[in-house]
Amino acid sequence: MKDSSRRAFLGAGAFAGAAWISCQAPEAESPGADSGPSALGAPVRRYGERSPYETSARGVRDSQTPEAASSRTPLDKTYGIITPSALHFERHHAGVPEIDPATHSLTIHGLVDRPLVFSLDDLRRLPSVSRVHFVECSGNSGGEWSPAGAPTVQLSHGLASCSEWTGVPLRILLEEAGIKPEAKWILAEGADACLMQRSATLEKALEDGLVAYGQNGEALRPEQGYPIRLILPGWEGNTNVKWLRRIKLTEGPQYVKDETSKYTELMEDGTAWIFTFEMDAKSVITSPSGGHSIDGAGFHEISGLAWSGRGKITSVEVSTDGGETWTEATLQNPVYSRAFTRFRFPWRWNGKECVLQSRCQDETGYMQPSREALIAERGRVSAYHCNRIKTWKVGIDGSVSNVEA
Ligand SMILES: Nc1nc2c(c(=O)[nH]1)N[C@H]1C(S)=C(S)[C@@H](COP(=O)(O)O)O[C@H]1N2
Ligand SMILES: [Mo]
């Protein structure tokens, strides 16, 4: 902020007050510095790049099989509710295929009156919708089942991202093919080397299933399923089949690999829950969060993200005293259903050690649980669907770290 505009801003009075006292006046700017108004800037370019000063990146762990791995969104380096496409987390079971949209197609078959094959051009001429939804791997926050928890929000919650998806409601395609009365489920299949498959209910497919070709205003990124992917809003990431090539209508679920040996919840008695599709309401403070360092006492906005696979987030509360007291945070409007919801909370750090937490509620009345409450319901051996409250500690030196809980 330029010196003069800062003065005008503070002078406007809206935030002039105790909270701002710790803000420092900027150094006087020397006229004619490096890229001042007298030097010509870079010419126009055909496709944008971010500033070279910006370095946030997806986190990738070394893996012996980089094609069957994941990368995580740096949630603490994103603003608002949309994840930049270049930072959307990735989870691939067999690498990212390169698919020519001119030859790719989507087949709808099984319990239908007439099997249909749609090219990309066919799909693009049909009625379309754009909707903001998160995608979250059900393994997100898996490390939070252990008391230790992960040290940064990228590691603990980075297998979730949120985009505006554009495409054709799946209902239109299924009704065009003619749904036979016996059809109750679908099987979706991807065109990657593992031909990834998942079963889903026909009810969900008809309610809000989307065959998406657009992401944040442009075509899907290859990592997100170019040229088309299935979006089942609020359902575990794995059901959102990328590089979609086939949907079969069936009487029942198909019990494929990724819904039997994987993506089921093991209980302590050795039984397992299957088809746990909806992602439970979850929230996390992204700023400040683990690995950050707070630069001195005074005003610091607390901010974070909340989302629920069952609908809209209705409230987020923040505690700065380790859960003793809770205060309502402000939600960014509009709040979308099954989408990231940004919350913000004005905070003045007194320079003492403190413990920060957030907890959210969704429109079904469901409240995000503590780790103990989650374990009471689900036991200790589960690996997926961990949505416990996350706790960050602020040390007297301003360092922010994960706390065992
Ligand atoms: N065809 C196909 N679809 C897929 C996968 C895959 O490996 N192949 N991974 C699934 C999993 S486990 C998740 S969590 C989401 C991740 O979506 P993203 O990579 O766009 O974030 O895609 C799902 N769809
Ligand atoms: Mo996943």
Descriptive notes:
The chain is mainly beta. It has two domains: 66-269, Alpha-Beta Complex (Sulfite Oxidase, Chain A, domain 2); 282-402, Immunoglobulin-like (Sandwich), CATH 2.60.40. The protein contains six helices and 26 strands. It has a five-stranded mixed β-sheet. α4 (170-177) crosses α5 (202-208). The relative contact order is 0.14. Mean pLDDT is 92; it is low at 1-23. The structure holds the ligand Nc1nc2c(c(=O)[nH]1)N[C@H]1C(S)=C(S)[C@@H](COP(=O)(O)O)O[C@H]1N2 and molybdenum atom. The site of the ligand Nc1nc2c(c(=O)[nH]1)N[C@H]1C(S)=C(S)[C@@H](COP(=O)(O)O)O[C@H]1N2 has 19 residues, from β3. Molybdenum atom binds at residues 91, 137-139, 237-238.
Name the ligand types.
ligand MTE, molybdenum atom
Name of the CATH superfamily of the largest domain: Oxidoreductase, molybdopterin-binding domain
| CATH class assignment of the largest domain | Alpha Beta
Strand order in the largest sheet: 5-4-13-8-9
How far apart are the first and last residues' alpha carbons, in Å?
Answer: 40 Å
Round the Cα radius of gyration to an integer and report it.
23 Å
Unreliable parts: 1-23
